[in-house]
Amino acid sequence: MDVFRGFMHEKESPAHQIFRQAAGHKPKGIIPQTVNPDEETVPGIEHPGSTGVIYCSDRAIANGKPFYLGPYPPLTTICFSYAASHEWSNLGQGAPEVGHIPNAPPRPDSIPMPVDSLEYAPTTGVKALREAVANLYNHTYRQGKASQYTYENVCIVPGGRAGLSRVAAVIGDVYCSYQIPDYTAYDQVLSAFKRLVPVPTALEPGNKYRMDIKQTKKDIITQGLAVILASNPRNPTGQVIKGQELKELVSIGREGTTVILDEFYSWYIYPEHDKDYGKSVSSAEYVEDVNEDAIVIIDGLTKNWRLPGWRVCWVVGPKNLVTALSQSGSFLDGGANHPMQLAAIPLLDPQRVQQEKIALQKHFKIKRDHVLKRLRKMDLDVQVPPTSTFYIWLNLEKLPAPLNNGLTFFEELLKEKTIVIPGIFFDINPSHRRNLFNSPCHPYVRLSFGPPLEDLDMGLDAIENVLKRARKEGHKGFGHSYKKSLEGNEGVSTQV
After folding, report:
1. 361 CB-near residues (< 8 Å, 6+ apart)
2. Are 62 and 486 in contact (CB under 8 A)?
3. What positions does the domain Aminotransferase class I/classII large occupy (predicted)?
4. Rounded CA gap, 425 and 441, in Å?
5. What's the CATH fold of domain 115-353?
6. Each residue of 196-245: pLDDT tens digit?
7. Model's pTM, two decimal places?
């Protein structure tokens, strides 16, 4: 068992081998080419690889535990499900709790469906909702400015990924800058839309994962960057670009480079002073001309309004961009759900939004501080505590091997019915060439404090159990004995 003291390469680690055997996760661009039979079932099909949440959820499902319910069916399985599950703590899913929180407006509980809403909606979205989005941005970020957003600057899309895909589909053959770590879906977008040539920049924890705007401007000149893609506030590190730094980043959009900012966590800002509750962050504040500045904003109801199941989001930018997005939407996704768009309109009322923001920030700050306090008691100090989002980027390097890497830590927590996301999924690496042990994200996991507090405590208890077991038993019980699938349960009913 001494081999588990020091895995040095992914080939030595069972957790890493399970990851590589999943469709789409084989290294690319390596000679001789390896062939995975699971990826060759249909000629011409190339698996893009799954995002972190999907892979981790599939692994959780594979770790269901069989038990007997009676003579028929003789065997069933308790396993993870995307719906609420009292058996599992999901600290992996990038979703906020969707129920009522203190002092927030009432949650929507019915959807009106007039006959007209049964028709297709325009690929740019319902005009009234587009107007509501434009009005909210103008009210929040552009009061007193000569240039104002109109409905022509807004395109409604069925989810954030659809927004990214629509934008990527209309970008020509260009160099696209992105940062590591960042949102996992960027990996698949940059892999699927091959006209974007990915140019990575690794951000440093010692600098609190700050994006160096001056260096970025130099890279635009020396590397010919035409597009910059980033989340702000940043997933998974919980940091945010704001104030003068954000103003300088937006200025790049007036100098011949398009800046695409994923602003889904723009309300999840945790102020130190009561007077700052209700403030949010957006590049829209620093845009000079809404139709000339090449700033593209992607946001929606998913995170800030805590309505991930609605799949109603938007892209805001120059109106000639919206025209292009309408065309790409006509063949990519066909448009967002018509009744849900109509139901969303009253939720964008500025007064309601302000009440939502304050309630959200106070509630999620309490959860953030609670999780950080419990992690400190376990001697898991967070190197760069989050000032925004609902994520904690946890460094495991100080733990004994093999728990000191994200994939193995994740697999061990599955045994405790808890899900986290291994850091390697945030290493945006479309070629998949790196030895996973060399990834700058390898020793990390992302914990979400999006779920309700009782779910967070259940997951933190599981982490504590793993650490206690490591102290008691040593390394021998870790790094192996992982279930690849629900062996022996084919054809039986599944209780989720």
Report:
1. 267, 268, 269, 270, 271, 277, 278
2. yes
3. 111-462
4. 8
5. Aspartate Aminotransferase; domain 2 (3.40.640)
6. 999 999 999 999 999 999 999 999 999 999 999 999 999 999 999 999 99
7. 0.89
Q: Collapsing DSSP states into helix, strand and coil, what is residue 1?
A: coil
Cα 260 from chain centroid?
16
pLDDT digits (tens, 9 = 90+) for 133-144: 999 999 999 999
CA distance 496 to 491: 15
- How distant, in Å, are the alpha carbons of 20, 163, 191, 300, 322 from that of 166? 29, 5, 15, 15, 10
CA atoms of 340 and 346, how far apart (whole Å):
11
Q: Which of 85, 154, 68 is nearest to 326 (CA)?
A: 154
What gap in Å lies between CA 223 and CA 226, rounded to an integer? 9
Backbone angles phi, psi at 492, to 5 degrees: -105, 160
Mode of pairing for the β-strands spanning 174-180 and 313-316: unpaired
Q: How many CA atoms lie within 13 A of 367 on its CB side?
A: 29
| CA 314 – CA 311 distance, rounded (Å) | 10
Which 3 state secondary structure label does DSSP give 203? coil
3-state percent helix, strand, coil for the chain, nearest multiple of 5? 40, 15, 45
- What CATH architecture applies to the domain 2-94+390-477? Alpha-Beta Complex (3.90)
DSSP string, 228-271: EEEESSPTTT-----HHHHHHHHHGGGTT-EEEEE-TTTT-B--
| CA angle (208 as vertex; 202, 213 as ends), nearest 5 | 60
**Domain extents for the chain?**
2-94+390-477, 115-353
